[in-house]
Design a protein that fits this description.
Layout: H1 5-28, H2 32-42, E1 48-58, E2 64-76, E3 81-85, E4 88-91, E5 99-102, E6 105-109, E7 114-125, E8 134-146, E9 149-155, E10 159-163, E11 166-170, E12 172-176, E13 181-185, E14 189-191
Antiparallel strand pairs: 1-2, 2-3, 2-4, 3-6, 4-5, 5-7, 6-7, 7-8, 8-9, 8-10, 9-12, 10-11, 11-14, 12-13
Length: 197
């Protein structure tokens, strides 16, 4: 088959059109840097959320170990973090008073082993037969936990501790639940009433 000059020009035009279209598509497609930044942006958006939600974590025997309630929950996959608004966390340990933690905002991180409470944070141990209610208040608390429960609580912000009528203020606090030692740091001041060791 013999090609006429018109056919050759049409084929050449079609090839040029395909080349131009390919170039235009290559320019519009994201490059490696754009793909990396879009995957980073992906993590800024939650992959799950809930409103007015409650969760209960059970121990090996099926008894409630922790209860969490929040006005809003958001899970962010890039950090494996769950952000909560107006959280209320309750910890149950057999034979011990219930512990309740509240704040304006909370974040659960590192496979649920670190809980940060922000804004009017409060941790309270319920009254028991032998001891009055005890509470700690601060702008921030960091709680470290494992499968057996809470290990440590700390804050680098000013803190106030109350136990019955006794009140103690400090600049920082580190509490070790295993040794049951509260380390108050900075300017520590307070009033102790009917305090028994």
């Amino acid at each position: 088959m013999q090609r006429t000059p018109l056919t050759q020009w049409c084929l050449l035009g079609f090839a040029a059109l395909c080349a131009g279209l390919s170039y235009w598509i290559a320019q519009r497609a994201p490059g490696p840097a754009q793909r990396a930044s879009s995957s980073q942006l992906k993590g800024r958006y939650p992959d799950a959320f809930a409103d007015q939600a409650s969760m209960t974590l059970l121990d090996q025997n099926g008894a409630a170990q922790y209860q969490m309630h929040a006005v809003k929950f958001f899970h962010y996959p890039d950090q494996d973090a769950t952000e909560m608004y107006s959280p209320a966390l309750r910890a149950f340990t057999p034979g011990q008073p219930e512990i309740t933690s509240t704040a304006m905002r909370g974040v659960i991180r590192h496979q649920q082993t670190i809980v940060d409470l922000y804004g009017r944070a409060r941790i309270a141990r319920a009254r028991s037969r032998n001891a009055p209610e005890m509470e700690a208040r601060s702008a921030h608390f960091r709680i470290f936990a494992d499968k057996d429960g809470v290990n440590r609580v700390q804050t680098e912000q000013p803190v106030q501790l109350r136990r019955g009528k006794s009140v103690v203020n400090a600049d920082r606090m580190h509490y070790d639940h295993i040794t049951r030692v509260i380390d108050l740091q900075g300017h520590v001041r307070g009033n102790l009433y009917n305090f028994r060791y």
